[in-house]
Amino acid sequence: MQAAELIAPLTFRLAEMPIEAPGPGEVQVCIESVGICGSDLHAYSEGSVGDTPNRYPMVLGHEPAGTIVKTGPGVTGIAVGDRGALEPALYCYHCEFCQRGQHNVCANIRFLSNPGHPGFFREFVNLPASNFLPIPAQISSDQATLIEPLAIGLHSLSLALIQPGETVAVFGAGPIGLLTIAALKAAGVGRIWAVEPVAHRRELAKNIGAHVALEPAEAVQEILQRTGKRGVDCAIDCAAKEDTSNQAVQVARNAGRVLLTGIHSGRLVSLEGSAMRRKELTIFNVRRSNHESHAALELLAAHTEWFAPLVTHTRAMDHIAEAFKIANHYQDGVGKMIVRP
Question: Does residue 147 contact residue 299 with C-beta atoms inside 8 Å?
């Protein structure tokens, strides 16, 4: 089968990879659509994701959807021809964190698209049947790629115990920020501010549920003014760019919450310690999702019209370099870029 390998920063090649028959309890899926994630862009442009360096060649992509073409022994309940979204994380289920139900921080996690674990920019993949999430007919494969990042948004809201009627500021209106805004809308929050430097993304943020979309330079002053200097109940940094984490600290109210969802490029991040202490803020770090995929599918199925405008661009896998360039530079009004193996 063919796969797109990242062989150096900004450089892909198409290569042949073997694919075996699915083993016991596994399904073999023909990959039809894969979303480009922010962490994919870190690996592509920076040569690492946070403090985890790339190991070349590597296959990125962890927002996949496709159709079952083979089933291994013992697979029941799903069959050849079924369409679904694919969970990219493989958990051990026996470490202390899995035993506590905190599978997303599994001590032995294998996350497909990390170095040493090929992702989904390839034609076929074998996965445990439990990692296959069937989708209804009204959801396209392109739309199904949103389930994985939408689950992250839902997980972040669960961590912060977001309540109906609360006020929230979201920094960054890339795909994960937009999906977080949609999750907030579904949760019934009272007011959502989106902070984003790219004009077309501010429009996408308003279309999907933000009440106000601001440029970063005016955001802190405007949010504090509109809240009577109180600040918002929760500030969510989905960008992890420049000073967005500190802006989140600045706009959070006393005893408020700050969620760090985006991935910072550097190992060390400077935060305004005095402001955090003075306000007694609670800081949450978001590590992907933890079995929120079914809830994400239900939300996507119930409000497909919210999410359809996010999928703005598609490219075939032999044009993956172009796809990444467009997504990395926010070109051509791109929201979510989909690669089709």
Answer: no
